[in-house]
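User: Need the bound-state model for protoporphyrin IX containing FE:
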Amino acid sequence: MIHQPKYMMSISTLLHVLFCRRATEDVDIGGVTIRKGELVQIFPYITQRDGRWFENSNAFNPDRFMNDETWPKYAYFPFGAGPRICIGQSFGMMKVALTAATVLKKLSLLPTKVMLEGTPRFSFRPNEDCMVRFINR
Ligand code: HEM
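Assistant: Bound-state model below.
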């Protein structure tokens, strides 16, 4: 079974450090005042692990993406949101699905580790090599 590419977006969380917006006016968000001109950094890594919207939010559970979305619009946004949303979103999703389908048609992938620790760099990267075993189907 091929899970929706959405899940792959969630574990890789590309552009994890680059999400910034500058406030164009003073605004109060959840009791925190952000002044006009201040930079706000947005962390999809955190919002998409918010236990209010995602059950067992840290668990490896690709099945959560198999059904209709139950979370609010901006709880999960691997391609950004608003006027600067990724213009390559459809292309990116298609590429992931096609690559997975092409590889998984011939090979099964077996992980050698359950879950790797990650480090935030330009994108979110595993701390060590991500070892998988390829088995002919
Ligand atoms: C899985 C693949 C991809 C992911 C996860 C991704 C993610 C993102 C994110 C989060 C942003 C928004 C940054 C922000 O709001 O500040 C963005 C913007 C952008 N992406 Fe992607 N992207 C992907 C693939 C692509 C591809 C394939 C292209 C081009 C063919 C592309 C072109 C762009 C461009 C031009 C922007 C800037 C849009 C703007 O500022 O108006 N992306 N991407």
